[in-house]
Automatic annotation (TrEMBL):
It comes from Tripterygium wilfordii (Thunder God vine). InterPro entries: Methyltransf_16, SAM-dependent_MTases_sf. This is FAM86 N-terminal domain-containing protein. It comes from the Eukaryota. The lineage of its organism: Eukaryota, Viridiplantae, Streptophyta, Embryophyta, Tracheophyta.
Amino acid sequence: MANAELNPSFPPYLHLVCAFLAMEPSHHLISLARVCGGGLVTERVQKLIWDHCVNKADGQSCARYLKNFLKKLIIEIESNNGVLMDELYEQYAEYMTSLKEYDLANGNAKVYKYISFLFQDGCLDLPSCPTSRKLIIPLQCSLNMLEGDTGCSIWPSSLFLSEFILSFPEIFSNKSCFEVGSGVGLVGICLANVRASKIVLSDGDLTTLSNMKQNLELNKLSTDIHVPNRTAEDSKMVKCISMAWESATESELQEFMPDIVLGADVIYDPLCLPHLVQVLAILLNPRKSRCQKQKDSCQGTLCDGKFPVVTGSNSNEGKIVHTDDLDVFVDDADYNPHGINARQVEATDMDTSNARSREGPVAYIASVIRNIDTFNCFLALANQANLTIVDVTDERRPFNLLPYMQSYDRSSIQLFSVSCKVTT
């Protein structure tokens, strides 16, 4: 029975293999392995893990991950009185004897994760769906979440934004796209897959840019790293530009004038928000005269470091932010620290009638709202900058292309469209 092979091309076995390639946490892999074995990690499931996961992994680059996974796998099997494959135990013993703990903890923290987007039956007509129904994107990143600020970790909002791009390729096809805070480059790779006419990826960290360039080349994309004032007009090349929000100038940004701006988890630091909003205001306004007016007006509003005050004398009371014609109400009793439901955030300018103008470019921002005060600050600054924010999470809900990724909580992420207000 142990010799009978399971087919890794079909669920749930496909999900287990994809989760391993994406380096999902070990307890999630064990959970998927139980599903494959009908509740237990059987010998057949162990053989699948050995043949298509452990035996094909690069043990040098992910030794610590493999060691931890094998340890938990062995404990799971033995605790249920199962029969353990000799190969799995021997591989674990090899890691125990040949690799010192110091080397594991202080070695190369960079690993290769393979993100597999799985297209189900309802996605077959999408031009983004490959004939194999599986799009695999290799990424060099870090297992150390402390390196997240260097852009070497994959964050949930970038996964959501990538699913959005692949689910609605018609929005991005033949469009000029610009991403703020591009991290590992996953969003840019998905944009290339749906044939965006021009892709510009930006980040303020040089380590991030270097890692991003390697990921783009790993996915067979031509790259060009430069600063904004040295832009070349080559639509076939993905451009990686060094751009810190606080130092970006209007003249630099006006060289790009994209059709679509994208951002994943960029609403996180109140001190950075004025600069982010200023960048968005310039990129989303195609007319130079209005861009100059926007720059002049932000001198005293966006960049002076003054934020709206959130009122409410009791932590259990609802809070209202008053910013000119914008009121934001949040009921603390319904607040979810992992994300805010769209119904919990209401604003007079967050309505579909104002946001449906297609006269200018649009931004799509995917974000987990971890701090409602920070999000209120973003809304207020955007309102001052003459930008309209609309929650389009339900309207533009992407397909679940990562069904195997249990660590990825899609329900905590919201998608917002940002555009310049229509003036009459």
